[in-house]
Write a structure and sequence with these properties.
The protein is an alpha/beta fold and 446 residues long. Helix content is 20%, strand content 28%.
Length: 446
């Protein structure tokens, strides 16, 4: 990849010359609702490249669809071309080989209403088993997903021109990426928490605001993953979907500067018997420990999670009612006879109507909350709505001015046709893409 650059004036037999001018290639990844994907390759040259001469036919990437090619000053995505040493080759996230987070279902989540990585023999319908049946049990450490290494092979198929007029001709040489840039994911740090109270050890990811000032007080968001991510890797909760990284994006941090905490559980914490392992209490202790270590506002701590993580969010609010100011609950459930403490909480609940278990469970929870005298705002949304419609949906639900907001997706609108994805995991593929919900959560205080 490296080599000694030839003088620009030396008109080549250009294959060797071009190879000598290339400094390397970087894979760029981005996290979507259904997981991390390889979305671009940045090829670095020894001189600034003229972006006006580039097109989608200038480069080819093995097994991928090139959607955009432009020059840039860094190995980063950009809206427009800026002459620089890097040529960014953007790739379609819809390519079959784009996905870097792969589950047994092929889509980044569970297929049932219970927190399981795949249907069990007793639950082949995918509609959810009865409590205590089907899926992994507390303590199960079998990973339900895999993180695929981000790598790509790129070939320069046409001439590239520098800003000084030198021409680097097409080459048949294949260049393999040797560096990876993981957008937002790389902004998290990995740590280990040894909890003296439970004896448990928790690996976790922590996003610290870019300009952290210990003289200020910051909110904290806790994200807890579903069971497909157990025992995968410390970074698992960051790449399986948007549940953690959405809060740490540049856009969200510009509006709501905050810490984001994402534990990686080595085993299933809770199943449909609703008797959690000691990792449940260790999570509460981790939140307290991070609060003490950094300048965290105890009145602005929030919890969110999907499937198993949603169950934990509900359970932690019940067992530790003073720990969080609000919760974003995505596709979870809890026994209705135990949810009385939730009547005093601020909740935003999202579930799919064709997620039989979670939908029935959330209906029971909100019914119990209403019976306790707490107002619950309700709405039915189309999961295939565009961003503008979701923004309007959020505004309409907020207009009811209730402490609990409950949105359900219409049957069939969270699952792409032919995807093999369940409505259960389809819920969080969409829920964390809606910024208005996050804005509401971040405005709550205890």
């Amino acid at each position: 990849m490296g080599g000694t650059a030839l003088a620009a004036a030396a008109e080549p037999s250009e294959t060797a010359a071009t190879a000598g001018h290339v400094r390397g290639a970087t894979a760029i990844t981005k996290v979507f609702g259904d997981g991390q994907k390889l979305v671009a390759v940045a090829v670095e040259y020894d001189r600034d490249i003229d972006g006006s001469a580039l097109s989608t036919s200038t480069f080819a990437v093995t097994g991928r669809t090139v959607t955009k090619v432009y020059a840039n000053r860094a190995a980063a995505l950009a809206e427009r071309s800026r002459d620089g040493r890097f040529v960014v080759v953007e790739l379609s996230p819809d390519d079959d080989s784009a996905a870097l987070w792969v589950t047994q279902q092929g889509g980044g989540g569970t297929s049932t209403g219970s927190p399981s990585p795949s249907p069990s023999p007793s639950d082949s319908s995918g509609s959810g088993a009865a409590p205590g049946a089907g899926g992994p049990k507390v303590g199960d450490s079998t990973p339900g997903g895999t993180i695929v290494a981000a790598t790509a092979s790129v070939v320069q198929k046409d001439t590239v021109r520098t800003t000084h007029g030198a021409r680097y001709a097409a080459t048949g040489t294949t260049l393999t990426t040797s560096v990876v840039v993981n957008l937002v994911v790389d902004d998290f740090k990995q740590f280990t928490f040894d909890d003296p109270a439970t004896g448990q050890t928790l690996k976790y990811n922590l996003f610290i605001p870019k300009d952290y000032d210990p003289r200020k007080r910051y909110p904290l968001v806790l994200f807890m993953h579903d069971a497909s991510v157990v025992n995968v890797a410390t970074e698992g909760p960051l790449v399986q979907g948007l549940g953690a990284v959405c809060w740490a994006s540049a856009e969200d941090q510009a509006k709501h500067e905050s810490f984001v905490l994402a534990p990686e559980y080595g085993s299933v914490v809770i199943d449909d018997d609703y008797a959690p392992s000691t990792l449940f209490d260790a999570t509460a202790n981790l939140v307290r420990a991070v609060t003490e270590q950094y300048s965290i506002d105890e009145n602005r701590r929030y919890t969110t999670g999907q499937s198993m993580g949603a169950m934990m969010s509900l359970g932690l609010n019940i067992r530790y009612p003073d720990l969080f100011a609000a919760a974003f609950v995505v596709a979870g459930q809890w026994p209705a006879e135990q949810v009385a403490p939730l009547a005093d909480k601020k909740l935003w609940i999202v579930v799919s109507q064709d997620d039989d278990k979670a939908y029935a469970g959330e209906n029971a929870i909100t019914g119990a909350i209403e019976d306790a005298g707490t107002q619950v705002a309700t709405a039915v949304w189309d999961g295939q709505s565009a961003a503008a419609q979701f923004a309007a949906d959020v505004r309409n639900l907020k207009a009811q001015k209730a402490p609990v907001n409950y949105a359900s997706f219409l049957t069939g609108t969270t699952v792409p046709s032919g995807s093999g994805t369940s409505a259960h995991m389809g819920t969080w593929h969409i829920a964390y893409t809606i910024p208005g919900i996050r804005d509401w959560i971040m405005r709550q205080s205890r």
